[in-house]
Amino acid sequence: MSAESLHPQWDKLMPVWQAYLSELYSDDQDKERLYWYCECLLNPQATLNNIDHFVVALEGYRVTELTARNPRIQRAWSALRRFVEDVKPTLIAQGAALWVYGSMVYDDPGHLDYDILLTSETFTHEFNQRTVRELMDLLENQYWFPENIGTEGHITCLSLGLLKKFCLSFQRGDRDSVVAKWSYIHQEFHEPSILLTGVPYFLPNSQSPDELRNRVRQLISQNPMLAAIAATDLEETLLIRQTGQKDPYWIDKKVAYLQRSSPQ
User: Fold this and answer.
1) Interacting residues of 256 by C-beta distance below 8 A, sequence separation 6+
2) How many CB atoms sit inside 10 A of residue 71's CB?
3) Lowest mean pLDDT among 189-193, 226-230, 246-250
4) Is the pTM value of this prediction over 0.85?
């Protein structure tokens, strides 16, 4: 079996998309997910329409620090507020905005952990390799675990400058660059959908959440691969909210993509 077996219309995909998907296939990524990436790439306008649809649908589940109703979720937001006060100097020095997503945003104590995305134009190597781990240790050891709030979560970084650079590699059809950096691309391309549905909790230097979201939306609209990953991630998030299951796993791939909850 090879990547060509992922989809019957594989030959209609651009060579740079095939190269990237082949790397994911070789890495033993979930084949159902890769199939839906192909579907999205073959139906780019429907994919963008679905992204808008999923974002609107998820708005109905979203809460903030002020609107959360579950007591455990309220405690989680309280812990986060105190944590952010502690680390503001670090975030400001890096020009990093802090976004919250996941169970805290969806008032879901059943799967409660912390999910935080930091965004900046660029992150230093030291920040990625050392500071993020220090931030996680501080949050967990001083606020999260002592107050018995939830399980271990995630703090990840999205470099907007690097995201744009990776998008340009696809637009130029630069297969060599995409293949050489596919693992980094895969990590970066999963983050933008968070900006479309997450809660902007801390924004340095008078940054606007709408401005950051619009930058990401523009990149998504210009890059079908980024759109495919964003649409697939958003749909999975919506399925989790609708079913109450962490891994609803997936939808039968025989169901036509254009018939699946596409806005009319």
Assistant:
1) none
2) 9
3) 246-250
4) yes
